[in-house]
Structure formats: C-alpha cells, structure tokens
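Q: what sequence does this backbone want?
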C-alpha cells in the first residue's frame, strides 16, 4: 500500500540562501531577479520546491533575519512585482515556492520597537515586547541569566531601568505573541504572502514564540538543547493551530513547516493533525557515522511522525550549520544524501551542497555573522557555509554576479573548479549524482510504504526496503568495501563506484 498524500509529503525542497545564490544587478547581494534567472537550473536539478530565505526590508544585521517590514521587499533584493514573477515562473516549471517568515522577533529598526525605545518605562508600546525591570540598584543588572543563542546575555537595557529580551542578536527584539496586536499582525503577514500565491511557509525559530511569563532562571547544569522556559512550550501550539487553519483555508495544500531543533519529542507535537505539515528533523546532522545510532534515530523519528500521519522532513544541510562535506566528509555527505532520499519523508537540500561545496575559512574582517561578534571571535559563526555559489569556471565572481562585481562574502581562489559549469558534464561529480538521484527517487522510492523492512547487513552497514519488496538501500559506514550482490542483481545508483560488486566505504547504493 502506498500513500502519496499532498505534494509536500515526500518533496525535495532546495534552500535558496538568497544573498548567496545569484546577483543580477552587481551590487554583491544575491537577489530575486538573479534567482528567477536560475530557476531552470533548479528545475533541471529535479527538486520539487524552493525555500527562499528572507528578502524583506532589513538593516541586515543578521543577513535579513532582522526584519523591519514583514510585508515588503528590500529594495536591494527586488520588488513585490519580482516576488510575483518568481512565483509565476516557478509554477510554470512545476516548482513550488516557500517563503521564510521570521515572526519570533523584529529588527530594532521596526516601527514598533522604535516607538518602544522612545516611549519610556511602563508604556503600552513596550508591551508588544518582552520587557522587564532590571535587577539591582537602578536596574543595572539584567532581569535574569538567560543567554542569547548568539552569545552573551539575552537582555539589553533601554537605559531607563528596563531591559528587552532578544534570544538572538541585540538588534532582534523578541515579540510577545500573547499581545493581541502582535497576534493579529502575524496573521495579516501570513495571509499577505499566501494571497500572493506562495505554496508554503517556513516558520523561523518556531519553538520560541512563547516564553514563560515568569521568566524563571534556567536550572543548574542546564545545557543548550535542554528544555528551556523560552522554547517549545505547550502554549506555542495554539499559535500554530491558528496558523494551520489559515493555511488550510487556501487551495493547493499550502505547507507550514516548523524550524525545530531537537529530537522526536520536540518535533512531534508540531505535527498533530490540526497543526503543521512538517517540522525539521535536525538531529541527523549530529548523529555519529555508525549504523546503530542511525537506525535507532530513523526508527524514532518515523514513529514520532507517523503517529500523526506525517513523515519526517530530513534536513541534509542549511545556512545555520557547517557544510555537509565538513560535517560528514565528502564521501559520507553523498552517502547520507542518498540514504535520506530513500527514506520515507521530505528532504531539504541546502544550496551548494549539490556541488559538494566545502566550508570556507574566511578572514576575520570578512565575517558578517553576529555570532562572531557576540562571541568575541570564539565562534566563527555561519558565514563559512554562506559564501556565494560558483556558476562558472572563472574568474571571480564565477558567474554569481556580473563580471567585475564583488560578492558580499569573498569566494575562494579554487571556487571555479567546483562550479556548476565544471561539474555539469562530469559523470563522477556530486552535481551529476544529485541530478540522477532526484528523478530516480520519484520512480523507485516516493510513495512507497513508510514502514522499513530492515535486512541483515555486514558490520558497519545498514540495509532496508520500504515495505516487503522493492529496491534495497544499502549504506556502508564501515572502513572497507562490502559486497552488494546479496541485495540485488544490479545497482540503480550509488554514491561511490560499485561496478565490481563492491560498495566502497562511506557509500550508499540503491539496488534491485
């Protein structure tokens, strides 16, 4: 029995990190017209949808995730008409479009926060934000010891005895979604983009929209990833139920996907029948490359999602983590991608990972990520995974922008050797592997049963079918080659050379 469900149930979605994808006007920033010009590349790649990172007006303190107007476009990145043209062009190519809504916080340049800063203690303008009196004489100490995800205190003083909460950068004050004006404005924003025809929404920092109103201290011994009074609280799910009703009111199976960080117990509640369609499965990014953790983790995520008649949204990479080839190694990054594409569920592929791009070590003076600044340079931040893509063999900017333009982050001298142009006709390239895998996935894996039938496998390996028959996926995480012939008569596709009946270490094969 198969279950195809809505379009997004087993879709492959490509994350377009807009600032680093394609620059049409030569100002160094990727933009909406640049993305439109590269839509045929995404269609040829074989993805089902694209998720576009924020393009809203922003002072750009956190690469556009500090939004000053949620219902417009930054003039450096395009116009509302460009959004409409992007959606129309994508739909003609059978591509769906997801936008990234940043509703946990706003920019410090947002009119609401500008008003809150000047209105003074106890003012109505400040009730839209998490504002508390400071501790100690004159309120000189922060209200509690909460730490920003980007480093340092999560509180910044107004200078009048009150402090505001920012789970991220100082320039990203958190909103109070229990405030009726905040709740109403978020709903208006969601409707605005759905009315423009987008096919879905990725909700940034999904679990952070509701904080414990008592602002309690974190317990002794607390570590990042532990339950916190500002993340994944029960109250946040009423917000998503409200937004899910709005998504369901539009035709075309509009998708809501939560950016969740955590294990099955964290993401499962977001997938209840009256909530969202997907929640990111980020845990695999950190599983050790050994068979048992992967088998246990896969089974746990499938159990947590299928109980709600949903499937996992496997994340292979994103703009918030190191490049896949740095996390797993070049061979294992290809192997993990083929594994994820064989599993039940959706897959999120980060721009440039289809080229096998490595993490880039940037000079200190080139780093823009506020994590670098707030950590005093101890954490180099995420910009190493955000370097603009190489489209041509060279010279710089390698087709990212017009000849002679300077990208917002510097590209390495060897970027042309990794470009789309260089990999296009190379049958051994990562680009060739992805272009072969995505259409093949549609015919041999997509829509098959969600239940995995595990097969006996050599040490260091995993092997499974979906259901009782069909192809076998064989993953070799061992240190040497293994014989694939007990699992099929021929190789449909492999991430490493498997012609001689041997599957190399750190490789995956699809077999029939």
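A:
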């Amino acid at each position: 029995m198969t279950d195809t469900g809505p379009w997004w149930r087993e879709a492959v979605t490509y994350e377009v990190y807009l600032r680093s994808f394609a620059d049409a006007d030569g100002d160094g920033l990727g933009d909406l017209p640049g993305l439109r010009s590269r839509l045929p590349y995404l269609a040829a790649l074989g993805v089902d949808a694209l998720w576009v990172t924020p393009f809203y007006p922003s002072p750009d303190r956190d690469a556009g995730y500090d939004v000053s107007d949620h219902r417009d476009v930054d003039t450096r990145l395009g116009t509302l008409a460009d959004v409409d043209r992007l959606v129309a062009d994508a739909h003609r190519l059978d591509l769906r479009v997801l936008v990234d809504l940043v509703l946990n916080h706003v920019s410090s340049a947002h009119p609401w926060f500008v008003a809150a800063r000047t209105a003074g203690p106890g003012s109505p303008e400040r009730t839209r934000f998490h504002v508390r009196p400071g501790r100690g004489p004159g309120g000189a100490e922060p209200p509690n010891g909460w730490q920003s995800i980007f480093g340092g205190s999560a509180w910044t003083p107004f200078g009048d005895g009150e402090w505001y909460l920012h789970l991220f950068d100082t320039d990203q004050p958190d909103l109070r979604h229990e405030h009726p004006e905040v709740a109403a404005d978020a709903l208006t924003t969601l409707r605005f983009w759905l009315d423009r025809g987008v096919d879905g929404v990725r909700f940034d920092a999904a679990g952070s929209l509701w904080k414990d109103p008592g602002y309690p201290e974190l317990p002794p011994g607390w570590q990042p990833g532990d339950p916190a009074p500002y993340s994944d609280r029960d109250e946040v799910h009423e917000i998503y139920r409200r937004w899910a009703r709005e998504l369901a009111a539009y035709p075309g199976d509009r998708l809501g996907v939560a950016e969740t960080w955590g294990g099955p117990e964290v993401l499962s509640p977001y997938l209840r029948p009256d909530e969202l369609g997907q929640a990111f499965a980020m845990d695999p990014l950190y599983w050790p490359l050994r068979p048992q953790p992967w088998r246990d983790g896969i089974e746990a995520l499938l159990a947590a999602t299928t109980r709600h008649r949903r499937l996992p949204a496997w994340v292979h990479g994103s703009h918030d983590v190191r490049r896949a080839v740095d996390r797993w190694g070049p061979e294992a990054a290809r192997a993990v991608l083929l594994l994820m594409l064989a599993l039940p569920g959706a897959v999120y592929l980060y721009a440039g990972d289809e080229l096998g791009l490595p993490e880039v070590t940037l000079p200190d003076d080139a780093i823009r990520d506020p994590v670098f600044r707030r950590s005093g340079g101890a954490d180099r931040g995420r910009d190493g995974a955000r370097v603009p893509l190489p489209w041509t063999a060279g010279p710089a900017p390698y087709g990212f922008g017009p000849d002679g333009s300077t990208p917002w982050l510097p590209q390495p001298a060897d970027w042309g050797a990794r470009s789309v142009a260089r990999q296009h006709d190379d049958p051994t390239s990562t680009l060739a592997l992805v272009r072969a895998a995505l259409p093949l996935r549609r015919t041999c894996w997509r829509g098959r049963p969600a239940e995995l039938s595990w097969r006996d496998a050599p040490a260091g390996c995993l092997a499974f079918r979906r259901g009782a028959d069909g192809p076998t996926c064989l993953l070799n995480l061992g240190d040497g080659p293994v014989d694939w012939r007990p699992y099929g008569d021929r190789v449909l596709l492999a991430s490493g050379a498997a012609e001689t009946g041997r599957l190399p270490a750190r490789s995956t094969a699809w077999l029939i």
